[in-house]
Specification:
Helix 1 crosses helix 8. A six-stranded parallel sheet has the order 3-2-1-4-5-6. The chain has a three-stranded antiparallel sheet with strand order 7-10-11. The two termini are 31 Å apart. It folds into two domains: 147 residues, Rossmann fold, CATH 3.40.50.720; 163 residues, Lactate dehydrogenase/glycoside hydrolase, family 4, C-terminal (L-2-Hydroxyisocaproate Dehydrogenase, Chain A, domain 2, Alpha-Beta Complex). The protein has 320 residues and is α/β, with parallel strands linked by helices.
Amino acid sequence: MDKDCQDVNLRKVAIIGCGFVGSASAFALMQSGLFSEMVLIDADADRAEGEAMDISHGLPFSRPMKIYAGNYDDIVDAAIIIITAGANQKPEETRLDLVHKNVNIFKSIIPEISKRGCLGIILVVSNPVDILTYTALKLSGFSENRVLGSGTVLDSSRLKYHIGEYLGVDSRSVHAFIIGEHGDSEIAAWSSANVSGVPMRNFYEMRGKVKYEKATNHIADMVKNSAYEIITKKKATYYGIAMSVRRICEAIVRDEKSILPISTCMHGEYGIDDIVLSMPAILGKNGVESKMPISLDEKELRELKESADTLKQVLSEVEF
């Protein structure tokens, strides 16, 4: 194990922010059996206490676990520190509209983590996740492998779901990624997508789907607009991202070496530098082990660079 992670309690997780996403993530992690201790922190201490109590009352139906509201002193030995704190995305508001509000919130959170010498992994879930992961990386001083964002894990799951529905196949057999920004400039990497090793275009033909371009464009649009549609209908999204958080934590705690499209800092890959965006990466007990290159066609590569430029433009207006 990396020396940075030697003294952490691998069975302990901390969640900072107990709104819809934080509480749903706490519930999902309670059911997962991954952890034996979970501390919840929120600016509203009563909210954190109430969530801890509510979730704890279901433990007789799950596994033994200590769940409690705490403060930053309680997170020092946590293996994973999950940050979901931030302003909520409102109807008709883009994830990037949230940037200034949530960067300021992170300026109060990240120094509290850093000054306590926390040795675990920071998992950023708050939106806009790519910008805030970059913010956490710059403010924390942590090594890059220990700071990651939930990225497009949920977007990629939505993509697999819709492909599975359209083609009438188990979505778990679909291998496809959304890359780039977790937001409006995201890209569906169709050129590397497949169903159990069969290239996506070929599989479409096997299933009698002849309008490949029209169908894939429609699915990509559905994925991109999913959050907006859900927010319009029920004011917030939280179950899907909670399950994504659980999946990321599984990969870390179990040292799975799983490949997930998480937010990581780019250093020249695909001609992109010094920006955080989502690309497939190998994830294990020490965090991000390495990025996983995937094949992109010229159009996808151009769109990926445009996505990076979009994020850089936003970052140019942020003061750290």
